[in-house]
Design goal:
Blueprint: E1 9-15, E2 24-30, E3 38-47, H1 50-57, E4 80-81, E5 85-93, E6 105-108, E7 111-113, E8 122-125, E9 137-141, E10 145-147, H2 155-159, H3 161-174, E11 182-185, H4 191-202, E12 206-211, H5 216-222, E13 226-229, H6 234-241, E14 246-251, H7 256-261, E15 265-273, H8 287-290, E16 295-298, H9 304-316, E17 323-328, H10 332-341, E18 347-351
Parallel strand pairs: 11-12, 11-14, 12-13, 14-15, 15-16, 17-18
Antiparallel strand pairs: 1-2, 1-4, 3-5, 3-9, 3-18, 5-6, 6-10, 7-8
Helix pairs in contact: 3-4, 3-9
């Protein structure tokens, strides 16, 4: 490659087919070449997401066949290096990228957008539609690496931000959450849920979170004003915690929660959905929408503008991602198994 201190080969974790953790292959492959308009990042930390599990399993389905094996937005081009969330340092630049970027500490925006501009929609994801950060090195477009050299956050904390906190910020922005409003957060102990709790609290909202018994205190420590135990009467507990109703729901669970929860919205309330941990089949009373001027909003990740706001938070360390566990790269299968068990609070990361 002609770049000092960058080897020709690297360790990486790839999938060559859909399946369980056994399809994760720890191997050595060539360090990717840096094309025009790209940079090469030495990975300091990579965070795990549910997208890693579902991409590996092929669990996303297709619009014409919900049961079809598929990656985030379509068939996977195997072999594929997984991992959307990367923090590290730039070690080489391609033609058209400034040489003084070398050595800068960066976070990579993992989205593949449908257009240029601040409000573009994500239509692909690093680790699914292009190779990701389960590796010692990864390439990225120069305009999607964000300089966080001066951030006091660790590489592990920075790596926790892109998908989980980007998704959370996208939900909050699309839901129009305002200071003083009451927000409901489902799945609050997971990566996206905990990010919703932290960012909503930082924005001055009253946060009512849904979690399970052993994790309730950790969710409260992250910033929730009230925590509802999902093992009990969820709607009854929410009514008690927010007797005047919910302004915005930030929901990664969906399933029955949507139908049960919509009547809890105040006039003009917004129910924002960015996941389906509780099931993708949803039924609700449509009268609760049109009679109360409510909205159900789909939210997939973030826009470039949202990600820029997130990086501003990272530089100022206005959110402090919680790291549940860290694994070496060669234990990627164990790390994904730990993620799938959902016994943790916060983010699981790997350090190549």
């Amino acid at each position: 490659m002609g770049v000092p201190d960058v080897p020709d080969v690297m360790r990486a974790v790839r999938i060559t087919r859909h399946g369980g953790p056994e399809v994760l292959d720890v191997t050595e492959i060539a360090v990717p070449g840096v094309r025009a308009g790209e940079v090469l990042v030495e990975v300091g930390a990579v965070a795990l997401n549910n997208t890693d599990l579902w991409t590996r399993e092929g669990a996303y389905g297709r619009p014409d066949d919900p049961t079809a094996l598929s990656g985030w937005r379509g068939p996977i081009d195997f072999p594929r290096v997984q991992g959307a969330d990367v923090a590290g340092r730039i070690v080489a630049v391609g033609p058209g990228a400034a040489e003084d970027l070398v050595g800068r500490r960066v976070v990579v925006d993992p989205a593949i957008y449908d257009a240029e501009g601040p409000d573009a929609n994500p239509v692909g994801l690093m680790g699914s539609e292009r190779d990701g950060g389960y590796a010692e090195y990864v390439t990225a477009p120069v305009d999607q690496v964000h300089d966080v050299t001066d951030s006091p956050l660790s590489d592990e904390q920075l790596a926790a931000l892109p998908t989980a906190y980007g998704t959370a910020l996208g939900m909050i922005e699309r839901g129009g959450l305002r200071e003083g409003e009451t927000v409901l957060v489902s799945g609050a102990s997971g990566g996206v849920g905990l990010a919703c709790v932290q960012i909503a609290r930082a924005r001055g909202a009253k946060v009512v979170a849904i979690s399970s018994g052993p994790k309730i205190e950790a969710v409260r420590e992250a910033g929730a004003h009230e925590v509802v135990d999902r093992a009990g009467d969820v709607t009854g507990q929410i009514r008690a915690a927010a007797p005047e109703g919910i302004d915005v729901a930030l929901d990664v669970v969906a399933g029955e929660l949507v139908g049960d929860g919509l009547p809890l919205l105040r006039e003009g309330g917004r129910w924002v959905i960015a996941g389906a941990l509780g099931g993708y089949g949803v039924a609700f009373d449509v009268r609760r929408l049109y009679l109360h001027n409510a909205q159900v909003i789909g939210s997939a990740m973030h826009t470039p503008a949202h990600f820029g706001l997130l990086m501003d938070l990272a530089r100022r360390a206005e959110v402090q991602p919680v790291i549940a566990a860290a694994f070496p790269l060669d234990r990627a299968a164990r790390a994904q198994e730990e993620l799938a068990r959902r016994g943790h609070v916060g983010k699981i990361v790997m350090r190549p």
